[in-house]
Amino acid sequence: MIRILVVDDHAIVREGLKQILADVTDLSVRDEAANAQEALEKIRDGEFDCVLLDISMPGRSGLEVLKEIKAERPRLPVLILSMHAEEQYAIRALRAGASGYLTKASAPDELIGAIRKVSCGRKYVSASLAEKLAGELDSDAGKPPHETLSDREYQVMLMLASGKAVKEIADEVCLSVKTISTYRSRVMAKMNLKKNAELTLYAIQNRLVDC
Questions:
Q1: CATH number of the domain encompassing residue 126
Q2: Tell me, what's the pLDDT at 74?
Q3: 8 Å CB contact between 77 and 49
Q4: In Å, how far are 49, 191, 203 from 149, measured between CA atoms?
Q5: Of 31, 164, 174, 177, which is least packed with CB atoms within 10 Å of its CB?
Q6: CA distance 133 to 130
Q7: Residue 210 falls within a domain, yes or no?
Q8: Is residue 211 part of a domain?
Q9: pLDDT digits (tens, 9 = 90+) for 138-179
């Protein structure tokens, strides 16, 4: 039996995942968590074979939680299940130690197969993501500017590029307006940009956000 911890800040998503997995005889959702702190406490106190982890959560992001999980339980497989397209976060998540990456638009059968695969110690990537990874390995070019950003800077960059205001971002990630403004300044400096419009154009050209 594969024991699963579901980590997502939306109760309706957690319930949906439990319903999808309820009839699968070799999978069992043993517990759930709504935020980073809950997730880490459950992992320290319980025994799990796989963690289903969302990226976008208030406070500490899923990528930050992922790194903490891998530091404390390096052998525990973490499968990212996100609303964000592969182009936005998948490679970054795999570099941080994720065993696989799925979007929430994936079919239930794909999710079940991915859980089984990562729980056996293997990696799960879609065919399109495997192609992107191969392209990265074959490339001799330097990193694109967005790859130089920290995980939080990258998150803020995507939200700015999507047209969100600084205060809106601050409210969503539970940080101060001043902190988000600092992140924005760092992003602009690292990417050598001056305006949000330039950031949006860059993100669209690099397929980091939808047109």
A1: 3.40.50.2300
A2: 93
A3: yes
A4: 31, 9, 13
A5: 174
A6: 5
A7: no
A8: no
A9: 555 567 889 889 889 999 999 999 999 999 999 988 889 999
Q: Hey, which residues does 95 pair with through a beta bridge?
A: none
pTM of the prediction?
Answer: 0.71
**Phi, psi (deg, nearest 5) at residue 197:** -60, -40
- Going 63 to 67 to 69 to 73, the CA torsion angle's sign is positive
In the chain, which residue ranges form alpha helices assigned H by DSSP?
Answer: 11-22, 36-45, 62-72, 86-95, 108-119, 127-138, 151-161, 166-173, 177-191, 196-205
Q: Which DSSP state fits 142?
A: P
Burial of 103: CB neighbours in 10 Å, binned 0-12, 13-18, 19+: middle
Regarding whether 176 and 122 lie in a shared domain, the answer is no
Bridge partners of residue 3, in order along the sequence: 28
Beta bridge partners, 93, equal none
Of 84 and 50, the structure prediction assigns the larger pLDDT to 50
